Amino acid sequence: MFQKLWFNSFAAITFATVLHYRVILFLAAFAFIAIESYAQQCNLILRGKVLHQENDNAIEAAYVWILETRTGAVSDQNGNFVVRDLCPGTYTVTIQFLGHKEIRQTINLTSNTTSQTFRMEEESFELGGVEVHGHQEAIQTTTAVSSLYGDALLQSRGESLGESLKRIAGVTTFSTGNTISKPVIHGMHSNRIMILNNGIRLEGQQWGAEHAPEIDPFLADEITVIKGAETVRFGPEAMGGVILVNPPSLPTSKKHVTEINLLGATNGRMGNISASHQGGSKKIKGLGYRLQGSAKRAGNVRSPGYFQANTGMSEYNFSGSVGYSSKKLGVEAYYSFFNTELGILRDAHTGNLSDLTEIIENGRPFSNPEFSYQINNPRQVVAHHLAKIKSHYHLNPEWKLNFQYGFQLNNREEYDRRRGDLNARPSLDLQLFTNTIDLFLDHNLKSNWSGSFGVNVIQQANNNIPGTGVTPLIPNYDMFNAGLYAMEKYLKGPLEIEVGARYDYRTLSAARFVQGELQEADLSYQNFSAFAGGLYQLSPNFAFTSNLGTAWRPPNVNELFSQGLHHGAAAVEIGDPTMVSENSLKWVNGLEYESEKALVEFTAYANQIKNYIYLSPTGETFVSLRGTFNVYEYLQADAFFYGFDLSGSYTFSDRLNGYLKGSIIRAKNTDEGNYFPFIPSDRMDWGFSYALGRESNPNSDRITVGNLVVARQKREPDFDLAAAPPAYTLFNFGYQKKIQVSKNQLNIGFQINNLFNTEYKEYMNRFRYFSADMGRNFLIKLNYKF
């Protein structure tokens, strides 16, 4: 029966792919680019990854040289390199990187592409005036991985984490208004997506649709999305995917670097500043530090034709780290503070049932406010502290012991529109304390085997702060989770194979007073998860990846015990304490084509989830002194998610480039034969960029024109407060200029989002019932590093 379900589901994908016009466009682009690949005698490729032997971190800017052909390459930010146009035969490969022993190895190239991982051993010597940096840990997984860094990350500066990641195919947002957004990966969000801030799993109140991740994207120089189920590697909350927010590596030399970002936007009259400074010690070799901070302020967002009342925001953030590294030992301490105040669209909080019905029918607010920076109730105030201590010790050249401890304090206050003195009190006041411990052993054997064995422990305590005057939406609770895991990877020529398994045990104890009566609950959950994946280089241009993994997620405390008004979401939410854990089986397959002019990545996935938990509108309303609110309840049903992502680029000439990315997802309630709410609709983003600079440096000036096409969500649940909004098309414009200032570079960016001021509503915006999305927005961005 299970095999038949999988076969029928993939047959459905194939049939839908042939018929859907957006898919035809995708496959036409794929076929067009693939024609560029043709057979020739010397078209073999040597791919590889260069890592530190002592810590398995990626080495950027390592020099790879083929002696016989006198050709070479330089490794990128992730340690990857490609040498093309090689004939069959035997070659001598040398790899050089400052401060490390040279690698000289003989490689035999056959009719297929060869992949090889090279690990470089540190070599101790003094060389004055040269800067040596530490390196971020390399991401080694056979599932789909996409990253934002370099110019792409620079163009996203000033946006929230969710908005930044929309540049990656298969990633969208689940938003509440135009200032609060959460990343969505293959239809999954909130507690199914794990976010790591500098290696520490971000633990906040992520269960709410209007609870944006408490993280400052300015602290990162690379943001990576892993689209597969990664519960073996990271734990139960990674069943939908993982987002890694990695800051720059700490320097270990005396050279100092300062970076400043200044941004401004017309919509909301937003201003944003960020500054960072890093350097190393003159006296202590291997000692480095970094300081970073940012501030942001914006007022009422404007839709085409009107302002949205009370949609301003303010944000103040800080982070700092210090670390020491030697050949045997590495130690790092890190702290970050995130603080934000967010206004909630006032028109989403109606006074009575007729007002609620009328504003949904009207489709826009009845009020016509002026612009203002003032933030009134309803609003949120969130402060998040994160601290970590990390260390590693090399037992020998092949084995490394790692330890990491993290502490987090998340304080969330949500204010509603109330009478008298109560208006100054939060209606929801939560403090969440989290401690995490990770202890694991890495090994990199010369026999092409590498792996990791470890244990991680998480302990949480959530407290409702007294004095709100209302019954808490969720109870006080204590949670404990312990996980034991093992992963192993084998690399040989064009083949990579990876397997892993994990066992988790979790306990949850909750208590609260409801109308003077104490309610308590003690629950426990346990489960195994496992995965197997592989990568195979089919030809010099084509690579295939496949990853099959099980995952699980115990129900969150809000899904179990919510009983009341969720003020920030302007909705009443009802939980179910009898819910059981979600269990899933996800299969992700990827095909990559790469040539000198073209790059195409195609990812198809199928995810069968048993006991999927979702929030569904009941059609009822709740009337109180504070207003009238829609009622939602948490339900469980078996689900089947499937779809694909496509991204590609093509170089038409030295100056003209084109890009294409899109995604299609289906989410079926297999118990009832209908569809789940809040699933992203089909979308495609395509465009061109043209270099305007002089012949000596054409990329110093570049313009980009993009077109986003989003279809209407036709697969709606049986009941919704309003029909899904119509399809929409947006045009965006960008200009980027690089100016050399002495030995440094000034980056100037100018963007126009929603160029023609189109009025539209995004289906994944929970406030689409009350207002349209943001209108035209002009942005200017300055970046200078010295």
TrEMBL record:
Membrane-topology annotation of the record: Multi-pass membrane protein
GO terms, biological process: siderophore transmembrane transport
GO cellular component, one term: cell outer membrane
Domain TonB-dependent receptor-like beta-barrel: 362-755
Organism: Algoriphagus boritolerans DSM 17298 = JCM 18970
Residue ranges occupied by any TonB-dependent receptor plug domain in the UniProt entry: 139-242
SUPFAM superfamilies, per the entry: Carboxypeptidase regulatory domain-like, Porins
A single MF term (Gene Ontology): siderophore uptake transmembrane transporter activity
PANTHER family linked to this entry: TONB-DEPENDENT OUTER MEMBRANE RECEPTOR, TONB-DEPENDENT RECEPTOR NMB0964-RELATED
TM regions (residue ranges): 12-35
Organism lineage: Bacteria, Pseudomonadati, Bacteroidota, Cytophagia, Cytophagales
Family as reported in the entry's similarity comment: Belongs to the TonB-dependent receptor family.
Chief localization: membrane
Protein name: Iron complex outermembrane recepter protein
Subcellular location: Cell outer membrane
InterPro entries listed in its UniProt record: Beta-barrel_TonB, Beta-barrel_TonB_sf, CarboxyPept-like_regulatory, Plug_dom, Plug_dom_sf, TonB-dep_rcpt-like
Keywords: Cell outer membrane, Membrane, TonB box, Transmembrane, Transmembrane beta strand, Transmembrane helix, Transport
